[in-house]
Design brief:
Blueprint: H1 2-14, E1 33-38, H2 42-51, E2 56-57, E3 60-67, H3 70-79, E4 85-88, H4 97-108, E5 115-120, H5 128-134, E6 139-142, H6 148-171, H7 175-186, H8 191-205, E7 213-218, E8 227-232, H9 249-261, E9 270-277, E10 280-286, H10 294-325, E11 326-327, E12 332-333, H11 335-344, E13 352-359, H12 362-369, H13 371-389, E14 394-397, E15 402-408, H14 414-420, E16 425-427, E17 430-432, E18 436-442, H15 451-467, E19 472-474, H16 477-498, E20 502-511, E21 517-527, E22 533-534, H17 536-546, H18 549-569, E23 576-580, H19 583-587, H20 591-602, E24 609-614, H21 615-620, H22 622-634, E25 638-644, H23 651-657, E26 661-664, H24 666-671, H25 676-691, E27 695-699, H26 704-712, E28 717-719, H27 729-737
Parallel strand pairs: 1-3, 1-4, 4-5, 5-6, 18-19, 21-23, 23-24, 24-25, 25-26, 26-27, 27-28
Antiparallel strand pairs: 2-3, 7-8, 7-10, 9-10, 11-12, 13-15, 13-18, 14-15, 16-17, 20-21, 20-28, 21-22
Length: 738
């Protein structure tokens, strides 16, 4: 919820950059509009009030009242009067506190004039359609969609509606009918239904049967074209026809004139204008059969003003609905609609295959030619997919460059995908040879539904990418089990880190000839609540892939620095602490600051700390590693290359890195006495280290024979079970005293 609220706050602040209202619009002698904000998030209160600062609605300023719970709002409502709008959150002290407050306002307090705008950051607790149908609210917005401009628009619409209702309460005998009309129409979604509702309510207001009324819209998806969107009685056959094609001159001319002049017309029949701005408007023609008096015209003006707000909401709702379920660029269903199709419409999955088709290296196309060209490429791919797959195959855009396809086995298969991308694409005069990697799921072989099916296809897609670019892979149960176990492990790792299940142990490092302790390597361990130890080679890669390694890595560095300070305080002045570092930490922009803060907070110097990086990491991005290592050296750290001999180092790059130690991988230590290859690699690493003036340390030493053999090769240092196993901090301190 906090992320959503922050996004709303950021959007709201943009409104402050908009032009200030002109002086003539501000009338300080007028009573301000009173807005009640009911939300348990204090940031929402502050952001809303800040965004509306200095702005006026209908020439009057806004004054905000605040309640942080539904209970507090009930107390405030009992004493406050003349509230124009309530901006109401759903989930507060209970999951439906906001909805119950709506009932309290409408049914117990009988406040029908106040406008209630439901704002929620958790729409799952109050689904929009059901909520709008079940509760007497005037607008429904998720906090993520309420940009600053939209918030001002919503408030303006709500205040205008409130003002119009209040004016009618005081001056017009048609108040109840207009309010009922507004409430009824506000629950209608979709332009056609709304327009039909206007027909019914307007005729009821004028005391006539729904006969002889035509509505026309301008703007929207059809551009400037005017179409008949609702009709009744003798004109019912005109629905959905362009106004220009209406062959009844009197009807066509009156509607055209009403839209052109943007006002209600009462001569030669009644034609009402509903204006929205931005090129959108609606006109309604009704054959009243009598001349309307001034009171009727006033009622109709009030009706039009009130309904215009509802009309705008309907148009905006239609646009939001379209954006929620359709991709605007490719005019395809999006992921949400595709999941619905998978979840609800597949009653017989036999013979049906789902595929995720991911265009290879699409980001490179955007980088090289620009996003506009990339959009054209996507459009070309969609056309080719339609040509090859045919109309009986459902297709959606489920990612930036990923398409979901659903159809018969024979159509949705690796061979068909290869056919789609076999020939080059011609885009804006450029000839492009594209390829795509595909993950497929046979629905008849899966028990998953909806988004779970997409997950299975994503798992297959990832496996295909690991194998070969442009390949295809069908999902299997074993594949899914492995992926879900990894996800379960990652979820457990997040929880374990938060609950302090991760801890650091220390394995001493010694001089091989004298067995003098020179330091220790800090190693991360994970013990679950049931006492099980998870091997580091299982959870460390997951932490690196998920980004969790950044906070975990900082925890290890800080813990190691604090333990180093304690060792020095115990009199071990030359003690050195080594810590492993991942590439993800190296790439993080705050890594150097993390190291500097850890040293400062622990009160130790970098000269007594050593960072270990793997050989493959050192070669992966040489420029980055060189640059960061230079900064690390400035902090005083020494640097070791771990697992040396397992990668493919360049000697020139190795010299440029200015490392202090080479660390022989345990595998070569184990093989040194049993195989010629292992002995040769160990000898080469030691000779290389000595030739470059580096200290060489061997890990995984388990026997005295291995120690003596390494001494014979002139290896400097070592660590392993022969000397000590990794141990907690308190055991390390006791061991050092012995």
């Amino acid at each position: 919820m906090q992320e959503t609220t922050s996004a709303v706050d950021d959007d709201l602040l943009e409104l402050l950059d908009e032009p200030e209202p002109v002086e003539g619009e501000h009338r300080p002698q007028e009573r301000p509009w009173r807005i009640l904000i009911v939300d348990d998030d204090g940031d929402v209160h502050k952001a809303t009030e800040l965004a509306m600062q200095g702005l006026t609605v209908e020439g009057q300023p806004l004054v905000f009242l605040h309640a942080s719970s539904a209970a507090q709002a009930r107390q405030l409502l009992a004493s406050e009067e003349d509230l124009a709008v309530v901006l109401l959150d759903v989930v507060m002290e209970t999951e439906d506190a906001g909805l119950q407050l709506v009932r309290h306002i409408r049914e117990e307090l009988e406040l029908n004039a106040v406008r209630i705008v439901l704002r929620t950051g958790q729409p799952g607790y109050a689904p929009e359609i059901e909520t709008v149908q079940a509760y007497d609210i005037n607008d429904y917005k998720t906090k993520s969609e309420l940009t600053r401009t939209r918030l001002y628009t919503v408030l303006t619409a709500a205040v205008r509606s409130y003002r119009q209702i209040c004016a009618l309460e005081a001056n017009r005998r048609g108040l109840e009918m207009i309010v009922e009309s507004s409430a009824s129409l506000s629950r209608m979604r979709g332009l056609s239904r709304f327009a039909e509702g206007v027909v019914t309510q307007l005729c009821a207001l004028l005391g006539m049967l729904p006969e002889g009324l035509v509505c026309a819209q301008v703007g929207g998806e059809t551009g400037d074209e005017v179409r008949i969107v609702a009709a009744a009685g003798q004109y019912s056959g005109l629905i959905d026809r362009p106004l220009a094609q209406v062959k009844i001159p009197n009807v066509r001319h009156r509607l055209e004139r009403c839209l052109q002049e943007e006002r209600n017309l009462y001569d030669d029949g009644t034609c009402l204008y509903f204006g929205m701005g931005e090129g959108r408007a609606m006109a309604a023609l009704v054959d009243v059969g009598r001349e309307l008096d001034e009171l009727d015209q006033q009622l109709l003006r009030a009706f039009c003003s009130n309904i215009a707000v509802g009309f705008e909401n309907v148009v905006l709702y239609s646009q939001l609905l379209d954006q929620a379920y359709n991709d605007p660029l490719l005019r395809l269903p999006n992921r949400n609609r595709f999941v619905e199709l998978l979840d609800k419409n597949l009653k017989d999955p036999a013979g049906v295959t789902l595929a995720l088709i991911d265009i290879d290296d699409f980001a490179d196309i955007n980088d090289a030619f620009g996003h506009h060209f990339g959009d054209q490429v996507l459009q070309a791919v969609v056309r080719r997919l339609n040509e090859v797959l045919g109309q009986n195959t459902a297709m959606a855009r489920v990612g930036a460059d990923t398409f979901g396809v659903l159809g018969e086995h024979a159509k949705v298969c690796p061979e068909t995908v290869q056919e789609v991308f076999a020939e080059p694409f011609i885009v804006a005069g450029e000839r492009l040879q594209l390829s795509a990697t595909t993950g497929l799921v046979r629905l008849g072989e899966s028990k998953a539904v909806g988004s779970e099916l997409l997950l299975d296809a994503q798992i297959a897609l990832k496996r295909a990418k690991q194998q070969q670019r442009g390949s295809s892979q069908y999902f299997s149960a074993a594949m899914g089990s492995d992926a879900r176990e990894r996800f379960k492990l990652l979820k457990g790792l997040r929880t374990g880190f938060e609950e302090s299940q991760l801890f650091v142990v220390y394995q001493p490092q010694v001089e091989l000839e004298t067995s003098r302790v020179i330091g220790a390597e800090a190693l991360l361990r994970w013990r679950t609540t049931d006492g099980r130890f998870i091997p580091p080679d299982q959870f460390i890669p997951l932490a690196e892939q998920s980004g969790l390694i950044i906070p975990i890595g900082e925890f290890v560095v800080r813990t190691a620095c604090q333990q180093l300070a304690k060792m020095r305080a115990l009199g071990h002045d030359t003690f050195r602490m080594a810590v492993n570092i991942s590439m993800a930490q190296f790439r993080h922009p705050g890594f150097l600051d993390t190291l500097a803060r850890a040293l400062k907070d622990a009160g130790v110097e970098g000269q007594h700390m050593e960072l270990e990086i793997t050989e493959s990491m050192a070669m992966e991005d040489a420029d980055l590693v060189l640059r960061v290592l230079a900064d690390i050296k400035q902090l005083g750290f020494s640097v070791a290359i771990d697992d040396f001999g397992t990668g493919f180092s360049s000697l020139s790059q190795l010299r440029q890195l200015q490392v202090d130690r080479l660390k022989i991988d345990r595998a070569f230590v184990q093989e040194a006495q049993t195989s010629t290859a292992g002995s040769t690699i160990a000898q080469m690493v030691i000779n290389l280290g000595r030739g470059l003036g580096l200290t060489v340390i061997a890990e995984g030493i388990e026997t005295e024979e291995q120690r003596q053999y390494l001494i014979g090769l002139d290896c400097h240092e070592g660590q392993g079970w022969l000397f000590a196993r990794p141990m907690p901090a308190d055991e390390l301190e006791t061991w050092m005293q012995r």
